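Lab notebook, bench 4. The sequencing result for the construct came back, and we need a structural model before the next group meeting so we can plan mutations. Quick request posted to the team channel:

Model the 3D structure of this chain.
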Amino acid sequence: MRLRLIRTVLFLGITMGAPLRAETAGAVKSTVRVDPRTGRLVRVVVVPPAWKTDARSAASRFQEAVESAARRYALDPALVHAVIEAESNYNPYAVSPKGAEGLMQLMPPTARRFGVANSFNFAENLQGGVRYLRYLLDLLGDERLAVAAYNAGEKAVIRYGGIPPFPETRAYVQKVTQRYQASRRQRHSSAPVAPAAQPEYRPVEWAVDANGNLYLYTR
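Done. Here's the predicted structure in token form:
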């Protein structure tokens, strides 16, 4: 039986910047494995564990890109960060057991739907994921429902009329919501406090009568 290689992932055009290139140069490799769903060979990315880092450090690397994409699609960057942390913990080469790929874990049909040609190019993946999140928010009109749909699909949310009763989805919504709210609280607590408004006093006026008495008054 002849096996046919159905997908080759290319990692050209990654524009993260010098620090990321220096850390990943020579470290990112690809390998061929059997897709358990189709029995066909698929080329996937393997990143050595040494590349992985904590979420706070990784978030700082992608800060500018996330804020730019969030502004473009009128989303709170903190929400985008919360989704990325829950999806891939900022690993642009992540592949889930279900086949979701890249920074924002886009399934191949979703990636194609939102114009992502290479899910392992973090810039493309980020734009596609943010566009998808914006679409879900516009469709469902609620952040928690949009987050649930990002995990389970908009059809499931519409079918159940709310967050689907899937343990994975409910845990996912809780995780993203907690991370999002914590980020917002931290942002508000660190914001500069405006100086207290000074009370406004009316000017004091004075007058002297014919007997030499001094009168002080305000209008």
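Residues 1-27 have pLDDT under 50 and may be disordered.
Will bring this to the meeting.
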